[in-house]
Amino acid sequence: MFIAPSKDMLFNIEHISGWSDIVALPAYSAFDLEDATAVLEEFGRFCAEVIAPLNVSGDITGARYDKGRVTMPDGFDDAYTSFVEMGWQSLHHPEDYGGQGLPRSVGAAATEMLNSANMSFALCPLLTDGAIEALSKAGSDTQKDTYLAKLVSGEWSGTMNLTEPQAGSDLARVNSKAVRQNDGTYQITGTKIFITYGEHDMSKNTIHLVLARTPDAPAGVKGISLFLVPKFMVNGDGSLGNRNAVTCVSIEHKLGVKASPTAVLEFEGATGFLIGDENSGLSYMFDMMNAARFAVGLQGVAIAERAYQQALSFAKERVQSAPVDGSTRDAVAIVNHPDVRRLLARMQVLTEGGRALAAYAAGWQDLARYAASPEQRDEAAAASEFLTPLVKGYCTENGVEVASLGVQVHGGMGFIEETGAAQHYRDARILPIYEGTTAIQANDLLGRKTLRDGGVTAMKMANRIKETERQLAAGSPVAQAVGIRLSVARKAFQSVVKHFVSTAKDTPNAAYGGAVPYLMLAGNLMSGWQLARSLLAAETALAAGKDVEFMTAKIGSARFYADHVLCDVDAQRSRILEGADSLLSVAL
Amino acid sequence: MFIAPSKDMLFNIEHISGWSDIVALPAYSAFDLEDATAVLEEFGRFCAEVIAPLNVSGDITGARYDKGRVTMPDGFDDAYTSFVEMGWQSLHHPEDYGGQGLPRSVGAAATEMLNSANMSFALCPLLTDGAIEALSKAGSDTQKDTYLAKLVSGEWSGTMNLTEPQAGSDLARVNSKAVRQNDGTYQITGTKIFITYGEHDMSKNTIHLVLARTPDAPAGVKGISLFLVPKFMVNGDGSLGNRNAVTCVSIEHKLGVKASPTAVLEFEGATGFLIGDENSGLSYMFDMMNAARFAVGLQGVAIAERAYQQALSFAKERVQSAPVDGSTRDAVAIVNHPDVRRLLARMQVLTEGGRALAAYAAGWQDLARYAASPEQRDEAAAASEFLTPLVKGYCTENGVEVASLGVQVHGGMGFIEETGAAQHYRDARILPIYEGTTAIQANDLLGRKTLRDGGVTAMKMANRIKETERQLAAGSPVAQAVGIRLSVARKAFQSVVKHFVSTAKDTPNAAYGGAVPYLMLAGNLMSGWQLARSLLAAETALAAGKDVEFMTAKIGSARFYADHVLCDVDAQRSRILEGADSLLSVAL
User: Fold this and answer.
1) Minimal-distance CA residue of chain B relative to A506
2) Rounded to an integer, what distance in angstroms lies between the CA atom of residue A332 and that of residue A318?
């Protein structure tokens, strides 16, 4: 059973994402918190009642391949049809093409819910979101008119075609070919692997966005163009025409997300349409990837939430062993044993911390898009771009850890597939890998988001944290204690940023060897900071007598996070500042 | 492909396990390092050539159940027959019953090799080892004469029957019944679950060791007796008689170790023989469990070694992306990218550190058994018993982490089952659970091994570490740097031990909430200490011009461990000393 955590999400939307600034934007002026509440509660019910029940059966059956066709597990087609009919794909997409135009901060919560319910199912809408993002930004008006409305409704789905057998994470080595035809279309030839929902029968058409090279393109990433390749050609009146020359030759046999078909696609002179300009494909793909990376970060929170709910419910029911404090000789529910409590508390705060971090990032995304002045938009974009690799990297690494702790809470039962905890452990494992591994996120964070502007954006974040520290210092004893931990962590972050800015140019291998520790340090700090902000908001609410149980729990989470998670930053700082020599000299 | 790391093992036997003290024992006076080398190299070849090739196919096929019978995957029967014929089961077992009487320190290395090759296969001999242990200590002469030689040879296999559906980790709730018959045997009735190799056809007979209660037994753990229940009754002449009334009613569908059948056994008035005295079953079972816990710790090292070898080999072959230092614009093998290096280095030192810790513990086991004076034996037993939960807890948690890092090194390929990295990730996950979860190990470490003697054994360990610190301080600059880190970690350990000794009685929930952080801190320290001792031995060898490449690598591992792993102890100390309030007050 899964219950969407809409209350925590709405708390974040109100107190973490900068809601008052968001609804002050003309684009969102029609929305208020009641709308967000209504949407998330209704979607939460849909996810719990329609999508979640297919999670286990989807894992057992898996997507099946036969002669170019993929059959989805029972129930997926119907669930997808309901999903589309109820308009859920369209939540945060532009109203011009039939979307509901909700803020990202609300859309992010919806994405998390769907992924908690069923990560395999949710991957289809997630990839469609990415295609909408890329087309909205770079597509021609004709392309938008032809494809966007159907993608926004979910009637058609989208895919991202980057990876090739010889080029995993390295887009410079992409060598699919695109040859311009007299009618202005391109013939696309090549093999793409790891294409999520590359072939399936839930949607009526699939719009592949494909990276390829024209014959005269320069080498490397500067010679990549982006093409739109529909599975079925679209006639002038919007009806579907012939099948395009793209074939699914197999799907992968994977550790997890087994109901999500991961296709090998063969493009054999398929008809493609250039998106934007030739040789500019990478920048369009980055728009799509950034949206997808953020969404994968949400998947990390989502799988953690699901694993936590399952483990907590088991721990409350499973009666085993008398308590260590001797208060009774009878066996008690294992949730009462101190270490089970520790495991569950860690699962809970990593989940809440990740959710709050994503909500904070989503707020910046809304401002980056619609803030009044270019300066405000630039500032918001810088913050949002700094946070994207943190959401992706930190939340997915934590998703794996939390899913693993969930197995541990179950003891031997956790290793039995029927219990369900093991599925989360298997499903979660792809998250720190796809849409760019944690190392790739870390290189992005260090190179593009920290070094490129000399640490300015990073230091601005540190200054924002200092402001929260000041508020904590003026608060309750608990707030003060959390503030002290936050301050220590923030100073570690600053010392690391300074170190990178002053040394990375001369010793790049040393610097990039510290990139993942930097990402984990920064993700830890930024999550802990959001929970500290939650604590302040919860204390204010408590003072007004509001929602005592929930607000007390938020304070407890912030405190546990500060004492048990934030304390890891010192070791990360030490690895970065003092560990490069031993890293570069160790024999492998 | 798997290559047994016999060189590192022999280094540990010579420099870490206290080899000169061990071969000075009369029991082992016939052995020397050349014998150990010959045995481990030959067994390493056997594991690599005969056992390892069945690991993947065993995972794919799994053990299969049909009407009470279990069929092993193809090749397992033949491999087991070879294993028995070549005498490998008997390596470290008593010569009185046909064993080869090798020291534990050598036997531990062999156990690790076999588990690296194929954990599912290795579980059968591992459980037989436990049965031999219990019978050797507590069995009657008749029982020993009837069963031991066949178990030592491996012709028959052994099992441990503890868990029941209503009693997972809580042996106080065992309620299988044992009713004494007029002929002195007992009728055993009850259901046991999670019985590793509880039913299979590789060995000719299976000797179940079963916990049950006689009708008048006191409640709780003081009323448990241990019984020997053969699958086939054994006639007076040693030949096999009728099948006993114990039936396998199903086997589990598991996340990993799929070729190892995990049985539900139904005892329906089966004939059992009391081992030792009535109501003393728990202490006999503890002997067996301690041997098994140590062996499971070795499984943690073993799966880490296997995952590391696979990831390293992939990283050396996989060419992807130009280096960050701009030294070439060509793509290079990913092992050259700083973060892949970091992942592999961490995998390597956690593996080497765990192996060294286990070798150190095995040395104490040898002394505990055969040292000349009772004082020496007691001291060795206290050290060995202190280290057992560390080997089990720390090495298995690390086994899971290393297997997960192994997936990460492979990128997207790691998520595809055919690559093989995912199997290690699945197989490893049982290790921190069975034979007592990490929390149970931690409670043992804190309660029985630390608090019971007021911290004396723990502080003795700290004093031994100080001696190593003194040697490091007198050594090379690298030795001195490692010594400083070791000293910081040792002091953290001491402060935590003092804290527990002074507070655990009054605030047991707070103390036991810090038990796993204490285990991880102590395991980290003790492993790092062994690698620091390795560094000293390697520097001495280097000074004599011996084996430059290997010894340089050992120094590099110790240094990386000190800079990148030991630095975690401070956060653990902080969780223990300052985190109890937030743990006990957090709302779940």
Assistant:
1) B325
2) 8
The distance of B499 to chain A (nearest Cα, Å) reads 17
Helices marked H in B371-504 — which ranges? 374-409, 421-428, 438-443, 456-473, 477-503
Residue in chain B lying closest to A163 (CA): B412
Query: What value does the mean pLDDT of chain B take?
Result: 96
**pLDDT above 80: residue B169:** no
- All residue ranges of chain A with pLDDT < 50 are none
Tell me which H or E stretch contains B581.
Answer: helix B580-585
**Residue B182 — pLDDT band, cuts 50, 70, 90?**
very high
Question: Which residues in A lie closer than 8 A to residue B338 (C-beta atoms)?
Answer: 509-510, 512-513, 515, 583-584
Would you state the structure tokens that stand for residue B349, as one six-digit string?
Answer: 């030192």
Question: What is the separation, in whole angstroms, between the first and last Cα of chain B?
Answer: 46
8 Å CB contact of B422 and A252: no
Residue A563 makes CB contacts below 8 A (sequence gap 6+) with A485, B574, B575, B578, B579, B581, B582, B583
Length of chain B: 588
Point out the residue among A172, A439, A588 whose CB comes nearest to the CB of B345: A588
Residue B572, H or E segment: helix B569-578
Question: What pLDDT is stored for residue A161 in this prediction?
Answer: 95
Q: B519-550 pLDDT, tens per residue? A: 999 999 999 999 999 999 999 999 999 999 99
A55 to A71, A235, A414, B372, B422: CA distances (angstroms) = 16, 36, 17, 62, 21
- Domain residue ranges of chain B, discontinuous segments joined by +: 6-63+70-151, 156-281, 441-588
Tokens, residue A275: 């998106």
Q: In DSSP terms, which residues pair with A160 in a beta bridge?
A: A209
CATH second-level architecture of A157-279?
Answer: Beta Barrel (2.40)
Query: Which chain B residues contact residue A324 at CB under 8 A?
Result: 443, 508-509, 512
Angle at A399 between CA A395 and CA A403, to 5 degrees: 165
Q: Computed over its alpha carbons, how large is the radius of gyration of chain B?
A: 24
* Calpha distance A332→A345 (Å, rounded): 18
Q: Among the options A397, A435, A469, A539, which is catalytic?
A: A435
The structure's pTM equals: 0.97
User: Model confidence over B199-218: pLDDT tens digits?
Assistant: 999 999 999 999 999 999 99
List of E strands, A235-337: 240-243, 246-251, 262-275
- What does the alpha-carbon distance between residue A377 and residue A384 come to, in Å, rounded to a whole number? 10
Nearest CA in chain A to B423: A255
Asked if A435 is an active-site residue, the reply is yes
Residue A51 tokens read as 């999508």
pLDDT of residue A71: 97
pLDDT of residue B168: 67
CATH fold of B156-281: Butyryl-CoA Dehydrogenase, subunit A; domain 2 (2.40.110)
| Helix/strand/coil (H/E/C) assignment for every residue in B497-527 | HHHHHHHCCCCHHHHHHCHHHHHHHHHHHHH
What ipTM was assigned to the predicted interfaces of this complex?
0.97
Test mutation, B425, B427, B588, chain A, max A CBs within 10 A: B588
The amino acid that residue B197 corresponds to is: Y
Domain A6-151, architecture per CATH: Orthogonal Bundle (1.10)
The residue of chain A with its CA nearest to that of B320 is A170
Is the Cβ pair A408, B432 closer than 8 Å? Answer: yes
For chain B, give the percent of residues with pLDDT over 70: 100
Question: Of B255, B425, B569, which to mutate for an interface test with A (greatest number of A Cβ within 10 Å)?
Answer: B255
**Which CATH entry fits the domain spanning B6-63+70-151: 1.20.120.530, 1.10.540.10, 1.20.120.450, 1.10.569.10?**
1.10.540.10
Q: Which of A166, A196, A255 best tests the B interface by mutation, with the highest count of B CBs <10 A?
A: A255
Spell out where B14-148 has E strands: 64-66, 69-71
